[in-house]
Amino acid sequence: MNRLVEFWRLVAPVVVALVAAWPATVLAQSPGPGPSAPGDQATELAKQQQNPISSLISVPLQGNWDFGLGDRDATGTIFNVQPVMPFGLSPGTNIILRVILPLVSQPGRDDARVNGLGDVVATAFFSPAKSGGITWGVGPVFLLPTATNNALGGEKFGIGPSAVVLTQPGPWTAGLLFNHLWSTSGADDREDVNTTFLQPFVNYNLGGGLAVGASMEATGNWNADEHWTAPLLFSVSKVARLGQRPVNFVVAAGPTVASPAGGANWRFRFMAVLLYPR
Fold first, then answer.
1. pLDDT digits (tens, 9 = 90+) for 47-80
2. For the chain, how many structural domains are there in total?
3. pLDDT of 122-146, one tens digit each?
């Protein structure tokens, strides 16, 4: 219990600061749905949120619990703050900024835990403002050495390509997110970064903002003997209102189908996505 309290003392100020600092102009032009928002509006919000490069402003607050770590079958926690901010670059092109800010609590040596901020990953997708049956985006991804503890980051700055492609026929959303990072500078005594991230995903919308889905989040470290870590998550989500603010609540769980020795056996996730439709 003390570990949980310590972790949330770390998380809470960051979350509060992020929400408090959200631009007033965005909030002013992004009212939530009225008290009797129709089910099709909730479904449309759900489909927009399932699209990583939609024009929907959102702030996912994602908690992950990884079970079965190491010889002690310990539990690791990662709380990701993941704002998504789309901008119109030109009449025909959008740029979508996606940032992943991880707050981590991992088991360490001698029953101690390592808590702090991990390395930040930021992506800028360039995408056509209007698309047909296939939606796509490409752009650079950056690794920023922001970790507050050497055990939580690589002390390397990295850069590489990123791409996403998806389709949304009827109630379905299906696609693939990809990026690859190479380190370009950083501490000489730390291992170079050479990692691939692949995320195939599929969602089926049941109506009224309710959806079910599955995704695999596979990370390949090409400098390691055992390359892949790949949790497979099955999810249920529902768009609801928190006051006047639409929020997509997501619960997901599933096995880790590939992991290095001592890696997690399975993952549980709870996420609340604050939505700002314009």
1. 999 999 999 999 999 999 999 998 889 999 999 9
2. 1
3. 999 999 988 889 999 999 999 999 9
pLDDT exceeds 90 at position 95 = yes
Rounded mean pLDDT of 259-266? Answer: 93
CATH code for the domain of 92 = 2.40.160.40
Spatial separation of the C-alpha atoms in residues 237 and 42, rounded to whole Å: 11
Which of left, alpha, beta for 14 (phi over 0: left; psi -120 to 50: alpha)?
A: alpha
Q: Is residue 163 within 8 Å of residue 138, measured between CB atoms?
A: yes
Give the chain's radius of gyration (CA, Å). Answer: 19
Concatenating the DSSP letter of every residue in 169-226 gives: -TTEEEEEEEEEEEEEEE-TTSPPPEEEEEEEEEEEEEETTEEEEEEE-EEEETTSSS
What single string gives the DSSP state of each residue in the chain?
Answer: -HHHHHHHHHHHHHHHHHHHHS-HHHHHT-PPP-TT--HHHHHHHHHHHHSTTSS-EEEEEEEEEEEEETTTTEEEEEEEE--EEEEEEETTEEEEEEEEEEEEEEE-GGG-EEEEE--EEEEEEEEESS-SS-EEEEEEEEEE---SSGGG--SEEEEEEEEEEEE--TTEEEEEEEEEEEEEEE-TTSPPPEEEEEEEEEEEEEETTEEEEEEE-EEEETTSSS-EEEEEEEEEEEEEEETTEEEEEEEEEEEEEE--TT--SEEEEEEEEEEE--
Cβ–Cβ under 8 Å, residues 164 and 188? no
Residue ranges making up the domain that contains 87: 2-276
